[in-house]
Specification:
By secondary structure, this protein is α/β, with parallel strands linked by helices. The protein has four helices and six strands.
Length: about 130
């Protein structure tokens, strides 16, 4: 069954894989502010509605998340997603080193809250890992 497209614009695409209960986002370029928050919010909405606990983040074309978006993610989005029951996160790092450092911070924060995260270089490998974990 093909994934459902949840959001698709010049900044990002978000898919939902119903059979695997996986949320998957791909950033198409640097994203911040309302566009960034929309991606995460729509993904959280679908996780809550569908009982999904797995997320694939393809951030290769993004960079570091601005301070305002980081604050929002930590204070608003992360508590919400934890309440939903997020368990597994497959990550493709941004190409830029500053983005990798920034995303590593989020991985550490979420791992302390019980989310198991793995970093990949390939979308198919990341998706296969998510399909293999329960």
């Amino acid at each position: 069954m093909p994934p459902e497209v949840i959001l698709d614009n010049e900044y990002a695409t978000v898919w939902f894989y119903p059979e695997d209960k996986v949320i998957h986002h791909q950033f198409h370029k640097f994203i911040h502010g309302d566009k960034f928050r929309e991606v995460l919010t729509r993904g959280a909405d679908i996780m809550g509605e569908q009982g999904a606990v797995k997320w694939l983040s393809d951030d290769r074309l993004n960079s570091a998340v601005p301070k305002e978006d980081t604050a929002w993610a930590l204070s608003t989005w992360m508590p919400r997603i934890q309440t939903i029951g997020w368990k597994y996160w497959a990550v493709l790092y941004p190409d830029k080193k500053i983005g990798q450092i920034n995303l590593s911070y989020f991985i550490r924060e979420l791992s302390q809250q019980g989310v198991t995260a793995e970093v990949f270089d390939d979308v198919d490998e990341a998706l296969n890992w998510l399909r293999s974990v329960n």
